[in-house]
Every structure is written in C-alpha cells, then in structure tokens.
Amino acid sequence: MILTVTLNTALDITHRVPALVPHTTHRVTDVIERPGGKGLNVARVLAALGHETVVTGFAGGPAGEVLRGLLAPLPVRDALVPIGGTTRRTVAVVDTATGDTTQLNEPGPAVTPAEWSAFLDAYGTLLAGADAVALCGSLPPGVHVGAYAELVRRARAAGVPVLLDTSGEPLRRGIAARPDLVKPNADELARLTGAREPLRATRDARRRGAHAVVASLGPEGLLAVTPDGAWRAVPPARVKGNPTGAGDSAVAGLLSGLVEGLSWPERLRRAVALSAATVLAPAAGEFAEEAYRELLEQVAVAEHPAAA
Fold this sequence. Notes:
Helix content: 25-40%
Low-confidence stretches: none
Structural class: alpha/beta
Radius of gyration: 18 Å
Mean pLDDT: 91
Strand content: 15-25%
Shape: globular
Order of helices and strands: EEEHEHEEEEHEHEHEHHEEEHHHE
Number of helices: 10
Distance between the termini: 33 Å
C-alpha cells in the first residue's frame, strides 16, 4: 500500500473558456470538479497505475463533503481526518485558445491542536501498513511549520520510505529530517538554495539532508541527483495543455517506481511520461493513457556525470 498525505486538501474546480480576456465577462464552456490537493492527485495517478493507495489529511465543511463524495467512487481508500473548518477550493481557468491556465488557490481552513493530534494518531496507524509515503503540498493554517519534518521522522522510524513534495520553510525544515526523496520544482529549489543553476541547486539540496533529489524543470524534464548516480530525463517535445497536476503525476511515477524496485532511469522515464501525459488531460490527477504509453518509449534518459 502507498500512503499519500495531503494536509491542505482542496475541491478543485476547472473552468474552460474560449479565451481569457482581463476585465471582461466570460461564458464558461465546461466545468470539472475533482478532489484535489497534491497528494490526492498523486493517489489518483497511483491507483490508475494499479497500486493500492490510501489518502489521508484533513477535510471538513460543505466543500469537504463534496470532496469526499467525489473520492468515494475512485479506487483509493479515504482515510481523511474530519475537521471543523471548511476545505478550501482551487479554481483553474483554462484558456482553450492558448492552453494557458490561470490558477486561484484559497489558503485552507485553520486546524486545531486537537485535530492535529488526531491526524498524528491516524498517520501512525497507516504507516504500519505502508510500503511508501508521499507528503505533499502546502500546510493549512494552524499546522506548525515543522510538521513535515515531524512526519518524515515518524516515517523513517517506522522504516517506510518517504517522499517530500512541498516548498518554502516547510521544505527547508523537512529536508533536514532526511527524507528519502524530495521533488522541488526549479523555483522551489532556487528559494531553498539560493542557486538558479539546476545542477548546483540540486546538489546543494541533497547536501541539506535529502537522500535523493529530483528537480522538476517544467517542459525540460527532470534532473535527479541520487546516491547511485545522476540523470537527466527529457520529454521528446513540448506539449501544450493544462499543466496543473503535472508535478503530482511525476511524484506518482517516482513513488510507484520505488515500490516496484525499478532502476532510477526507469523511474525517471515513467515520471516524465506521466507528467507530459497529464498536461494533455482535462484535469489534475488524470493523464492521457494512450499518450503516456507512447511517451514512455520516447523519453530520453541520460547519465549526468558532472553531478557525481
């Protein structure tokens, strides 16, 4: 079983419009609602890949009820912890003429100390049956900034491989707890290390405590620095579409590859193919299956000797 943690779950709402023009009224052509938050997106992709997946985190209020209702028919187990606050919403507006997406993210509900304590109890129980865990996304108000560091340490104590995908101070503190893998994007990596050059920044991030670092470079693919070597994985061509959730699909590719015992090049190939296929899908947490199969054969993975 793979466990994904989304402390700041969301009800994702995607609007599609013929063209997004500032200061005007728009007629929406399509509306999609999905259970969201990075870890939930990861879980849906993992389930589509055939992995038993459990989601945990927080959900509450009317939006939380809708989110759990949307989760119910999916092949993932809902172990979300109820809270008194209302789950946030995220709104993505997709310009169908250009493929560009404008994203509006609410901050999330305040979590009380008692609710955090209840989550820690549930997390400990779930770790006992997990083969790997992904800690994903932002922290909701009320959860202390070192929360991910605490969850990393608990996973390590339980002998469960842990992937961390967050940003800012939670990433800085979490990486010091020595997760097995972190997956920052280029901006998150630059804010963490102060370096804009991807190789230098990735190596610096690994020195800060992570066992391995996989940097997401957007349409330029992934750069991985690991104890076993370093690699660049690049898609065959730039794809146009909605990039929301592409990084989460990459996390699913890396985590599923870890559990299946794939080599690093194969994990990276899967992660890049899933990420690109997600850009072609209508909403986060989904990927275009036929495109994924084609891309899997086309992704180029090369060893990066300069990072050794």
